[in-house]
Amino acid sequence: MASLSLPRVLHPKKTSLEIERELFEKSQAQALNKAINGNETPIKQKHVRSAIIGTFHTQSAKIFWAYALRLPAMDDRIVAWKLCHVVHKVLREGHPLCLVDSQRHKKDLEELGKLWGHLKEGYGKMIKVYTSLLINKLEFHKRNPRFPGHLGVTPEELESIAGNDINNYFEMTVEMFDYLDHILELQDAVFGSLNMARSNSMTSAGQCRLSPLIPCIQDASKLYDYCVKIMFKLHMTLPPDTLSGHRERFLKQFSALKKFYESTNNLQYFKDLIAIPPLPENPPNFLIMGDFRTYVTQEVVVPQEPDHEEVPIVEGSLIDTTDEGLMENHNSSDTSINLAAHQEIINEREFLRAQCEKLRHEVNALMAKNEEDVSKLHNKIMHLETDLATKDGELLQERQIKEDLLNQSFAVAQSQDSEQKVKNEKFDKLKDLYVKLRDEHIQKIREKADVEKKLFGAMKSLERLNDLEKDKERLEEEEKRRSEELSTLQKDKELFNMETEILKKSVNDASRERDIVKTKLAMISEEKEEMRKRSEELYHKVLDLEKQCSCERTEAEKILREVVRKSIESSEEIMKKAIHEVDNPALTALTCSPDYLRSLTASCQELMEATLNIGDTDYASSISIANQLSHKLSTYILQGRATCNTSPDIMFGEKMAETCKLLGISGMKLLHCIKENTNNELFVKEAIDKLNDVASLADSINASLLGENAENLADMLENEMLAMDKAIEEAANRIQDMLTNSRAADSGIKLEVNEKILDSCTSLMHAIRLLVKKSRFLQAEIVGQGRGTASAKDFYKRNHQWTDGFISAAKAVAVAAKFLLTAADKVVISNGKLEQLIVAAQEIAASTAQLVVASRVKADRNSENLQQLTQASREVTTATGTVVAIAKDCSQLIDEAEELDVSNLTLHQAKRFEMESQVKVLELEKELDQERYRLAKLRRHHYQLAGEHET
After folding, report:
1. Coil, strand, or helix at residue 729?
2. What tens digit of pLDDT does each residue of 234-243 get?
3. Pairing with 99, which of 254, 453, 776, 921 sits 20 to 30 Å away (CA)?
4. Domain assignments of the chain as residue spans, ordered by start
5. What is the pLDDT of residue 789?
6. What's the CATH number for 711-899?
7. How far is 148 from 95, CA to CA, in rounded Å?
8. How far apart are CA 10 and CA 19, in angstroms?
9. pLDDT value of residue 366
């Protein structure tokens, strides 16, 4: 039996309160463990809300901190980051005494920030900044205990906190600026870490970093509002120069805060979590008081999440506040909603009243305890002061006794000396010496005894004095210890005063909310009665308005239908005019390319198909589509008529013109269906068929213009390019052979002239060969970029004009190369003229320039091949100039070699040679004019042939 009863002795049964407290602490621990974990996800608000409710249950944050400090925040950076977020939420939304209880844990937050601050990036930097923000918040509330955790105060309370003292306003502004600096530094660290982590607001990692910005935005909004109001108040009192530093700091924070709000509003994550009103475009001008009148406080709104936790039931007496007027049997939904709202307000009022009573009792108990402790300390201090005064009095008394003893000994010595003198007069003079000696001896003995006695007394006094000194030292140490205890008590008193201010604030807020609720209830009752009367009046007005609107709607529909009819009739007139213009002879000179006509087809077809989706009452769409269809279709018909003029077959052109007129008639039918609001599906199909017929005929014209060579353009271009390469190669080889033969057969000036001319021609041929090579590279690039998924033949066919130009340029280069070879050959064998060589060089330069231009038309301006082709063209130009310069130098060299020797001529011979030279000059001038006329005629014919070929 003893073994059965032993556990009952060792484990006594727990009371219900202990069990309830254990369950509560267990639930708090579970909520914190779920809210603050190592997963990189945002904290769940329901777990944080459980921790906040727990602070109201215990009316402190001691249990919260007891479990929060057990979390592995020093080991896991995610846990540390979430802990800072939860602490911020508890300080803002928890019980007012949480600010007091958390003052003792600033050191823990500081150590946490120092540890993770060694990581310069990512969470380490953010945790360091966040802990600094939390410590600054605690210090702000310690200096300003009347500010609640959420910082929300009325303008009257703000004036009361500052004591309406301008110095207090000045210092409070500095503290708020410091607070805002910490918030802006945290948001900068968060957004900076997002960029490095390559995460966004819709990922768990990004949301884990961004979620603490919500309470930061709530704090920043309040602080910004207070700063604006206080700054205006400061500028009303102080000179502007004194506040220049404040203005500069405010403008800097305004810019950063505006950027912070804009960055947050742009993130999808915050769309449903917080509504942030944007800051104005320009900061308030504190030098203009008119800005203060236009300033409006904008509140940050955080939507409340549905609360699924069980709300603790407050025990207390329930007052029957049932209103007989509200208990009437109303069947309307508005009455039931008002009853529910009224009952909810009553319950909330009773809950607040019970909380106020509870807080009042606690405040009274705390104040009584505080007064009792203070009175005890005062009594103890007075007792110690009394003891110290007593000890000082005893010390003074001992010093007085010592002085009295010294005076007494001096008086006794004087009296003994006078008696001895009297006795000495009675003795014989013979015995004077003996008596004197004896008396002196006796006197010395007595003095010795007195001195020993006095010395003993003095030693006793000295010992007592030493004891008093030791007692005094002990008293001083006790006084020092009491002073330290008094300092500690003073600090506790400051915290208690802070708690008292917060509790007074809570009581005042509760009372004010109760009065507001009462006022709102009265207003709701009055508004309800007014709303009922107004609803009846509005009901009758609505009936009248509905009748009036029905009539006006019918009239408006008639007007709109007439407007649609008139508008579509105008569109029909445009179509009729376009059909009529098809037969206008003045249009025979107008032309249009089939490709441009084909580009207009898609938009016309889209508008025709859009008419199928027009509703019966969609008047705006009817007018818009009809106007667009009439304008675009009339343009298409006229451009189709202009395309007919490009056909070489007159009968085919007339056929296409008739098809354009049929397309216009189909468009007229389609517009008529829109005007009459009838089914137009068949007419839409008919119009689209006519549209495609016109487009097909235009394609036929395009094919007839290209002729049989359309399919062979690619082969023709390749053949011409090969022929050009072959001609250049043959010319280069032939020039090299001529140079070899000249070196073997010629000598002197002729050999020198031939070598210079053939070397310059060889350099020119190398430059032309390089130019042709770069041209081929650029041509391949153009075809590769422009054809898409089509073949090269399709690209050349689609761009036949460009291809013809390229072929013409290749032919011109080949012809110029052959002409240069012929001119050089004639010069070498002495049958040719150097002028022919100059003309050939200039012609080949012009031909290569034509090839470069043909290549550059469709090339990308940033193409590397185009840059290389341009450089090759410059080298051809340089080589051509070299050939021309050398030809002129060689001509001058030959003329100098063949210079006429006039030294042996007679007068008659000189006169005869002069006349022959004049005749030769006249003949040459005549031939020059004839050749210039012939050259101009040939160039005009060449340009005419080139234009016809391109067309």
Report:
1. helix
2. 988 888 888 8
3. 254
4. 182-306, 364-565, 582-706, 711-899, 904-951
5. 40
6. 1.20.1410.10
7. 10
8. 17
9. 72
